[in-house]
Structures are given as structure tokens and as C-alpha cells.
Design brief:
By secondary structure, this protein is an alpha/beta fold. Helix content is about 25%, strand content about 20%.
Length: about 290
């Protein structure tokens, strides 16, 4: 279909106005799963020395970058990733999204037209975190009236009014879904828990607890997963040896994709965006 003459005359101007020029460079990224294998193994290697009361730590840590800002591995559009991060920063101007990890104890307040006061608050332990950009999600779990409750929240949902970290810590595993089959005591959190302040700028402690599992049946055969935070003492040694056949083979452990990490230049570009966002909001980095 032929274009109208007036539109043809304006086409070069429109392209120049709405499309990026040849020299356009957007600060960007190319990959980085929400929780990459390299990141989780590094967390396991990291050892933090601290007092019993958690008052002091042996080392400082680098700047934290929320994992949903790091693009996953694969073919990416740099412009799309850049614009999506800008949308994330725009949402962060409305609501404060604190630093948290799988294993942290959190409280979330969401708008609820059917609740008293038009809002509801849920306290639980973060068992999973995933997604990228505006599609980032996290799951909180708690035991309410002897019933396990798991709620999946969209991190950038406009229904969320407040996110509060009651206790900042990590676990030995990057996914705690096995808590569904663990004893209830490991998922029970007091709804009126008093927040425990984390020393600013200090490493996040790793909770070395190993949970006890309930008798079978389970959601899945957890013994076939290479889990560090589960005590399988209820299973016989024969079953544990048989389960190791499903572990990741040694030759696959050496696969470069298993050790893939976001390029340093891309991480530096995203760090600059985060720093610029914090400066815009007037945040003091020492209060992180």
C-alpha cells in the first residue's frame, strides 16, 4: 500500500525523533538470572564472622543490587531492559523496596477492599524469589492456625503499600520450597515479631540451620536435590546413596553455562543507574 505524500515527507523527521540514533548507547545489561548458579555458590563459600548477638561482623560488603534488575541469560534487547529498569526505579520512588534475600523474615502490607481498614498485613519467611524486571515475584510462608500459608507477591505491584524486613539473613539454599514438607516449627513466624536491626554496611549473615522433614509423602523427592539446609536423617543410608544418582553429574558442573556470570561492564552500568536513583531520592548509602 502506497504511503500518502505528506506522510512520506514527514517520515525522516519521525524516524529521527522517535528512534535512537546510530550513536545511541543505553546503560544496560545482557544477562543475569534472578539467582544465578555462580551467585548462589558464592554465597555458600562466603563465611561471615560475627558475635553471638549479631552486633559486629568481620568484613564489609559491596553495594547490593536487587536481582530483578540484572537481565537473565539469553538474547536480550538492551533498550527494552533499560526502559524496564527505568520503570522499576519509577515505582521505587513511590514505595521503598528494601534489601532482602531468600530466608529473610518479612512483613508485607497490601491493599485489600475486603479487610478491615482496607489493607492486610502478612508476616512470613521468604522462601522463593524470581522473575525479572517488573515481573519480579517473591513468596512468603507462615503457619496460621496450624495451616501452612504461602503467598506469592509481585514485587512491583501497585497493590503493595509497604515492604518491611524484620530480620535480614540468608539460608544455605536459594529455594526454600521444601519448608512445605518440613516440620511446622521451621515456618512459624510471630505476626507481632519485633524487627531486628541489621548493622549498616556489614555482611548479611547466613543461617546454617538444617530443617527436619516430616514423614513421607512429600511434595517431591527432596533427597534427590543437592540441598544443604535439610537433614535427611529420617531416611536410610541406602535411600540416600540411591538418591545421589540424580545429582548433577561432574561433567555438567564444569559446564560454562553453570558458571555464567553477568559481564563486569554491564554490572558497572547498572550500578551507576542504581547510584543515580539513590541520589535522586536523597538516600544515604550508609543507611542501607
Amino acid at each position: 500500500m502506497a504511503l500518502h505524500s505528506s506522510f512520506r515527507a514527514r517520515l525522516p523527521c519521525l524516524l529521527q525523533r522517535y528512534l535512537p540514533s546510530k550513536n545511541f548507547k543505553c546503560p544496560v545489561s545482557t544477562t543475569g538470572d534472578t539467582i544465578t548458579v555462580a551467585e548462589t555458590t558464592a554465597d555458600k563459600r562466603e563465611k561471615h564472622v560475627h558475635d553471638q548477638d549479631g552486633g559486629s561482623y568481620g568484613q564489609t560488603r559491596e553495594q547490593f543490587i536487587s536481582p530483578e534488575l540484572l537481565p537473565p541469560m539469553g538474547t536480550r534487547s538492551k533498550l527494552k531492559d533499560y526502559l524496564e529498569r527505568k520503570d522499576c526505579f519509577t515505582r521505587r520512588k513511590v514505595i521503598s523496596i528494601p534489601e532482602f534475600y531468600v530466608g529473610s523474615i518479612m512483613a508485607v502490607i497490601v491493599a485489600d477492599p475486603h479487610a478491615k481498614g482496607k489493607s492486610s498485613r502478612f508476616v512470613g519467611i521468604c522462601t522463593r524469589r524470581g522473575g525479572y524486571g517488573l515481573g519480579a515475584t517473591f513468596v512468603l510462608r507462615n503457619i496460621i492456625n496450624d495451616q501452612g500459608v504461602d503467598i506469592c507477591y509481585e514485587l512491583y505491584s501497585p497493590l503493595i503499600q509497604k515492604i518491611e524486613v524484620l530480620k535480614l539473613e540468608k539460608r544455605l539454599d536459594s529455594d526454600l520450597k521444601y519448608l512445605q514438607d518440613a516440620l511446622p516449627e521451621y515456618s512459624t513466624i510471630d505476626p507481632n515479631m519485633v524487627p531486628i536491626k541489621h548493622p549498616p554496611g556489614k555482611p548479611v549473615p547466613v543461617n546454617p540451620i538444617k530443617v527436619q522433614m516430616k514423614p513421607k509423602p512429600w511434595y517431591k523427592r527432596w533427597e534427590r536435590e543437592e540441598l544443604q539446609g535439610v537433614d535427611f536423617s529420617i531416611l536410610s543410608e541406602e535411600k540416600l546413596e540411591h538418591a545421589k544418582k540424580w545429582w548433577l553429574p561432574i561433567y555438567k558442573r564444569m559446564d560454562l553455562l553453570q558458571h555464567w556470570k553477568l559481564p563486569d561492564e554491564v554490572q558497572k552500568g547498572i550500578k551507576k543507574e542504581v547510584e543515580q536513583h539513590e541520589i535522586t531520592l536523597g538516600y544515604d548509602k550508609t543507611k542501607r
